[in-house]
Amino acid sequence: MRHVLLLLAALAGPCGWAADFAVQHTAAGWELSTGGCVALTYHAPPDGPKPFIDPLRTPAGHAVTTNRSGQAHHHGLWFTWGGVQLVETGETVDFWQDGEGVVVPVSGPRAEVGEGSARLTGENEWRRRSDGLVLLRETREVALHDSGTPRAHLLTLTLDQRAARALVLSSASNERVAYYGLALQTPPDMYYGLVTNRRRGVGRAEVEGVGAAWCAYATDVEPARTVVLFDHPANPRHPNSWFTLDSGFLSTSLVARSDCFLPAGGALRLRYGVLVADGDFDRPFVSRLYDRWLSAVGAR
Fold first, then answer.
1. What pLDDT is attached to residue 13?
2. Measured between alpha carbons, how far is 298 from 300 in angstroms, rounded to an integer?
3. Distance between CA atoms of 223 and 263, rounded to whole angstroms?
4. 152-163 and 134-145 as β-strands: parallel, antiparallel, unpaired?
5. pLDDT digits 0-9 by tens, 260-291
6. Which of 65, 124, 171, 270 meets the CB 3.0–4.6 Å disulfide criterion with 56?
7. Helix or strand holding residue 206 (H, E)
8. pLDDT of amino acid 17
9. From CA 238, how far away is CA 294, in angstroms rounded?
10. DSSP SS3 for 64
11. pTM for this prediction
12. Euclidean distance between CA atoms 76 and 218, whole angstroms
């Protein structure tokens, strides 16, 4: 049975345009909707390996994510570090692969619907699976906003992390640019799409390793659609670097170029936006929605 947890009554309208916002808990996960259209489903598996969003859909209902790619550890839209090193012992726990490192919900998520938004908030622990050792504690919020247009959905992912012990977030990877952080995996029908950033770089060679406020992945194969990740100006090391693959993968990483040290009790706040739109990539449209997103969440 589907349970409507919260609903803000408003005038009905097309998806993404000042419509009703709702949160529903279903057998599939937590659904955030606007105008009666499900924009995303949030999953928080009780035993890990990590929370994720899938599917993430355009207002017309077309998915821009998949949890069923050839990479078993790619989970739609998700956030995770790679290796997290314990300073005291030198041991490293891998959170990227679905193995020793797990992100486990300990509270929530709690649903809230307000004027022009719907959100989920929950607390997670980043643990070593073998002995339950906690490395990080985190409050995570997923918010769906009024995009101001029936063409797009607009959301925010906010992570407030605190180190349970002295840690190093590692940049070591098998690529020249680390890809650990906010990551997106598209379905196969979006592979070999257009990749471009705010600096007008186009293609992997001009995007990978380049700092930019946003980066887009789009396809003109029907149904044409665009997904854009936003890096918030208050994030450490903004604008962060990007990594992409022709197989529909896009990520931005705080540790793209170098490690990040967190002392015991050290806090880290990260905030990202996501724009999901029907139709071909439109640079002025994306720029307007980036500005709208900053107005909604604040530039600091």
1. 41
2. 6
3. 47
4. antiparallel
5. 999 999 999 999 999 999 999 999 999 999 99
6. 65
7. helix 204-207
8. 53
9. 14
10. coil
11. 0.93
12. 16
Q: Return the amino acid letter for 97.
A: Q
Give CA–CA dist 101/105, Å, rounded: 13
75 closest CA partner among 57, 94, 97: 97
Which residues does the chain have with pLDDT short of 50? 1-14, 16, 18
Task: Tell me the average pLDDT of the chain.
Answer: 92
CA angle 154/159/165 to nearest 5° reads 170
The pLDDT of residue 236: 97
Give pLDDT, residue 170.
Answer: 98
DSSP secondary structure code for residue 26 in this structure: E
Domain boundaries, the chain: 3-297
CATH placement of domain 3-297: 2.70.98
Partner residues linked to 224 by β-bridges: none
Our CA angle for 127, 128, 134, nearest 5°, is 40
Residue 15 is predicted with a pLDDT of: 54
